[in-house]
Design a protein that fits this description.
The protein has 113 residues and is an all-beta fold. It is 0% helix and 33% strand. It contains no helices and 13 strands. A three-stranded antiparallel sheet has the order 1-2-3, with no helix packed on it. A three-stranded antiparallel sheet has the order 9-6-13, with no helix packed on it. Strands 10-11-12 form a three-stranded antiparallel sheet, with no helix packed on it. It is elongated, with a radius of gyration of 18 Å. It comes from Pelomonas cellulosilytica.
Length: 113
């Protein structure tokens, strides 16, 4: 069993050392062995559509009309969402939108306000 940490991007366990770098053969990501997080301690960074780092409590703006599954409602472009909460999973933002209610958003469809 390997004592190397998994890839921080794709979480592959097949990482290997190449000099002072760690390399993932599945996605090609390279990172420094010194900067690697300890096992069980992953540094999770959520970025918006333009690359700004998001944090809990931020205000974001929707950049694309988003249809809501199971409903005829649409979240329109330019809708401001206040006090977001970051979560794990496919939809990495939990929030409440005025007129719609609680829902999950993907960070790729918002930008930091």
């Amino acid at each position: 069993m390997s004592s190397l940490p998994p890839c921080p991007l794709c979480h592959s366990t097949y990482t290997y050392e190449d000099g002072s770098q760690l390399v993932c053969p599945e996605c090609g990501h390279e990172w420094s062995a010194e900067a690697a997080p300890a096992p069980g301690e992953e540094a999770r960074v959520v970025k918006d559509a333009v690359g700004n780092v998001l944090q809990d409590g931020d205000t974001v703006t929707v950049i694309k009309d988003l249809k809501i599954k199971g409903s005829s409602l649409v979240v329109k472009v330019g809708t401001k969402v206040k006090n977001i909460r970051l979560t794990d999973g496919d939809h990495d933002i939990d929030c409440k939108i005025d007129g719609i209610g609680a829902m999950g958003l993907k960070s790729e469809f918002v930008k930091k306000a």
